[in-house]
Amino acid sequence: MEMWVFVPISAFIATAWVIQVVVDGFRRRQQIRLTTEFHGKLLDRIGSAKEFGEFLNTSGGARFLDSMTVEREGGGAPARILQALQAGLVMLTLGIGVFVLIGTTDLMIGDNPGENDEAGFAVLATITTSIGVGLLLSAGASYGLSKRLGLVDGASR
Questions:
Q1: 97 and 50, same structural domain?
Q2: Final residue of a domain: which of 42, 73, 104?
Q3: How many CA atoms lie less than 13 Å away from 94 in the CB half-sphere?
Q4: Number of domains comprising the chain
Q5: DSSP per residue over 44-111, as a string?
Q6: Same domain, 7 and 82
Q7: Per-residue pLDDT tens digits for 24-53
Q8: What pTM, to 2 d.p., does this model score?
Q9: For residue 125, what pLDDT is reported?
């Protein structure tokens, strides 16, 4: 297998990712539009400040206020930290696996093995391992900062 085979695979993955981002953005836009319309109609039905205050004291009013906050779908800081941690571990494991592959096998790519094949895999392994370590460091820094700001574990300054 030649290294050029990775080009169409990478192009396919990049295209799929772009399509996923566009579809997710469209879905979120539609959801926000519908929620905004619903909230507008609900607020139009409330006639006075007294009625609004009474509404907010109900369980439905509490849910209304919760839904008015900025997108809670992502799960907040802990969910994003866990996603970075998960991605970092996967990338680090993949990079180490490629390094092990290089060390334990003779890379017979094409008709004659060469140093270029091994160097290509070494570059891939180095980049993948570096991304994994970077994501793990980022997750650690985000956790520390989030803890100091009181976004995780209920700790607050």
A1: no
A2: 73
A3: 15
A4: 2
A5: HH--SHHHHHHHHTSHHHHHHHHHHSS--TT-HHHHHHHHHHHHHHHHHHHHHHHHHHHHHS----SS
A6: no
A7: 999 999 988 988 888 788 778 777 778 878
A8: 0.52
A9: 87
99 to each of 6, 43, 49, 141, how far by Cα in Å?
A: 18, 60, 67, 27
Token pair of 64 as six digits:
């209304």
- The residue segments making up the domain with residue 39 are 1-73
- CA–CA distance, 139 with 73 (Å, rounded to integer): 20
What percent of the chain clears pLDDT 70, i.e. is strictly above it? 80
111 and 51 within one domain? no
For residue 141, the number of C-alpha atoms closer than 13 Å in the C-beta half-sphere is 6
pLDDT digit string, tens, across residues 129-147: 999 999 999 999 999 998 8
Based on the domain organization, do 69 and 80 belong to the same domain?
no
- The upper half-sphere exposure of residue 11, i.e. CA atoms within 13 Å in the direction of its Cβ, equals 5
Contact 146/113 with Cβ under 8 angstroms? no
Mean of per-residue pLDDT scores for the chain? 79
Instruction: Answer with the one of 73, 95, 126 that is the final residue of a domain.
Output: 73
Q: Count other C-beta atoms under 10 Å from residue 72's C-beta.
A: 9
